[in-house]
Amino acid sequence: MTNHTTSRTFITAPDPLLDPLVDRGTHLPTIAVDLYRDIHKGIRAELFAVTLEAGSIDPEQRDDRLALADHVSSMRQVLESHAHHEDAFIEPQLWSHLPELAEKIAADHGTLEPRFAAIDELATQLTDAPDAATDVRRLMLHLHHELSGFTSAYLAHQLVEERVVMPALEAAIGIEATLAIHVGIVSSIPPVEMARSLSFMLPAMNADDRAELLGGIRAGAPAEAFAGVLDLARSVLEPADFVATTARLGRTAAAVTS
């Protein structure tokens, strides 16, 4: 969740590859509650990482292929869980207030989910291929291409949600109702899944984003639970990033209590 207090205009060249629904980079909308920012940053980072891994590992090393298959499988779980949260908490409001956008998002989900399922199946099949076979090298390149293509399509989908759906939804239902969606999503996530999500989200976020996210957790969680979240943050962040985050978290706490 994030707060934006200003609206700015940027001049950029038209992008013929951008979804026509999306304002072509010329306007930054003002929104008070962003349902997508943090998880989308994490998903982008994971998609980039797994695509890079598929292109760089040694295809003749089965252990490398096994590790890649595990990463792809984990990515599939993340994507399906995220889509489920959107379907359960965001799409009902879209169908009620913004049915054309609801149709677009539902169609995207219906296309993207089976596409990544096929990628997951290919990665799994490659774990049992003969190490030195020409087919393994060819199929590894195919897997890299498929991940690249999926990532491109998914980034376009995310941009529609961020630049079109989010401002339109908040305008349609108001800040309080949007905040209620955020609370509902967060409350529905089991602790184990939340820890897994934070492990790839936090490194993908900047210090301000992390301080805001951690501040919200601190406000709603018992002290021992928040201490565990801080330990997780320390384990996944570079030391300098963790220091910067806790410093801003401290400033946030001081501002609240002053």
Explain this structure.
The protein is mainly α and 258 residues long. It has two domains: 8-190, Four Helix Bundle (Hemerythrin (Met), subunit A), CATH 1.20.120; 206-258, no CATH class. 76% of the residues lie in helices and 2% in strands. It has nine helices and two strands; from the N terminus they run ββααααααααα. The protein has helices at residues 37-56, 62-97, 99-126, 134-173, 175-188, 191-201, 207-220, 223-236, 239-257; strands at 8-9, 27-28. It has a two-stranded antiparallel ribbon with strand order 1-2. The longest helix has 40 residues, at 134-173.
- Strand pairing plus helix content: what structural class? mainly alpha
Total of domains: 2
Instruction: Report mean pLDDT, rounded to a whole number.
Output: 89
CATH topology of the largest domain: Four Helix Bundle (Hemerythrin (Met), subunit A)
* Percent helix: over 70%
The tally of helices reads 9
Biggest sheet details:
2 strands, antiparallel
